[in-house]
Amino acid sequence: MISPFTGRRSRIAFRSAFALLAAISVPGVSAAELPKEPLRIGREPQFVFDRPVIDNQWALKYKQQSLARVFHAPRKSEHNPVIAGRGGMCNVRREADGTFRMWYQLDERTADGKYGNHAIAYAQSRDGIHWTLPNLGLVKHSGAPEGNVVWAGVDGEEARGSFLLDLPEADRKGFRYVMLYRSKKGLSLVGSSDGVRWDPASVQPIYKLHSDTHNILLHDPARGEYVVYCRPKHVYRTFQGDVLDTGESRRIARMTSRDLWTNWAAEPQTILVPDELDEREHFNCFYGMPTARYGGLYWGLLWCFKMNSDIHTELAFSRDGISFDRLPDRPKLIERGPEGSWDDGMVFGEASWVEVGDEWWIYYAGWDGPHNMPPGQTREVGVGLATIRKEGFISMRGPAGGGVLVTRQIEWPGGELVVNADAAEGELSVRVTDARRKPLAGFDYADCTPLKTSDVAHRVAWRGGSLADHAGRIIRLEFLLKSADLYTFRASEGSPGPNATKN
Predict the structure, then answer these.
(1) CA 20 to 30 Å from 465, out of 89, 124, 277, 295?
(2) Predicted structure pTM score
């Protein structure tokens, strides 16, 4: 889908680069503190739009040009909907043998046109595009004649909003799969050995919260705790009455626990509410925010809700999982389809993307009608696919005359420098300097073999030798971008070079 505001390569350039990122927080410190230098980046990709990583930026022709932060929207698949007439809020995983597996919320339509009797259904695919709904015969459910329901809760409690967890082995209780879901009793966990046969004896309620959306549970290894993103319905919309008394629960809240398989003691706290920019188009509610951790950042796929009709998906991001930022022009990550299309009413993008080659595949639930349908009318659901370059949500773009990004001081962990960049219409070069910006011998721009193509994992080379030989050294990286986009950089896996030095 092409936006009227897109520029080269159908992307939106924001000239107010870093305007909202100046207060991004760093794990373990408050939003007002600067990161401690030198940075120890390990092997994780470092997103260059992220202020704690970059110390400075400028254009060579700074009176006329500037570096721009650029948003890149995923492309909807030409095969959409990949599942028609079925689906809902979903998780997708790709197994080691290449099989795609999907768990989605089944919403059975009642006689009066409403939806209820929720359950978790299952689909699978060899290519991620053509899906089958296997007749498993495990759970009887009137809303799934295919027989692909795999979990409907216990004692008639229903199940909705399934979210599969990535857990340390010690917290799996021997299960290969662990799922968070919501029932009439609140949020619960359940385990499975194969992803289709879920063990009723393993069910563990963790919090009595009727957050009727897709609730997300992540493990935060830096803090050694678990995090749930949900709605604050323990305080708002808990009783009947007008808005003055009930308040509004369609906000994003967060709660944590050191222990997973227990009744959580901490209460959810609201962290994200709509602001004056959302008010422009009356999107004054947030329906939910599927969230993932990648590259030291929390990535939220925020469901923006115009009460009581349309929903689209925007991007939010955070260093600490508490203070989330959004791009200043609020571009839509996954937009509703054109009028009359299968997804013209609501789109619910999921953060459980799948890496396929050089791309991330993002699945979403789409509806051809608004949240509240007029009397006598119905809506249909489907599952869609949108694809984007790996690590490709936001880049820094250098102008034709050239622009420079300089990192903060980094203690180089060893290995080669790997960049994810698109220089197909220009070029990218890198020089390596010390803390005071004096180039290392043999590692200046003139020594660098420039990148002039697009590559998600390009290994930068210099005449001066290998950066792996400088493991432990305090350096800065200075990226020279000429009509090129830089997404991330990282240190490659592997041991330090044979001549590794240390300051």
Answers:
(1) 295
(2) 0.91
Helix ranges restricted to H, 152-273: 243-246
Please indicate, yes or no, whether residues 259 and 382 belong to a single structural domain of this protein.
Answer: yes
Whether residue 502 is predicted with pLDDT greater than 90 in this model: the reply is: no
Q: Report the half-sphere exposure of 129 (CA within 13 A, side-chain side).
A: 9
Q: Using alpha carbons only, how large is the chain's radius of gyration in Å?
A: 24
Mean per-residue pLDDT, 486-497: 84
- What's the pLDDT tens digit per position in 215-234? 999 999 989 999 999 999 99
CA–CA distance, 299 with 290 (Å, rounded to integer):
8
Does residue 425 share a domain with residue 286?
A: no
Distance (Å, whole) CA 247 – CA 237 = 6
Number of domains comprising the chain: 2
E-assigned strand segments in 37-86: 46-47, 54-59, 68-71, 75-76, 83-84
Residue whose entry in the numeric block shows the structure tokens 């227990």: 262
User: Residue 34, CB half-sphere, CA atoms under 13 Å: how many?
Assistant: 7
Among 18-32, 80-94, 115-129, the range scoring the smallest mean pLDDT is 18-32
CATH classification at residue 442: 2.60.120
Do residues 409 and 484 share a domain? yes
Q: Which pLDDT score is estimated for 450?
A: 98
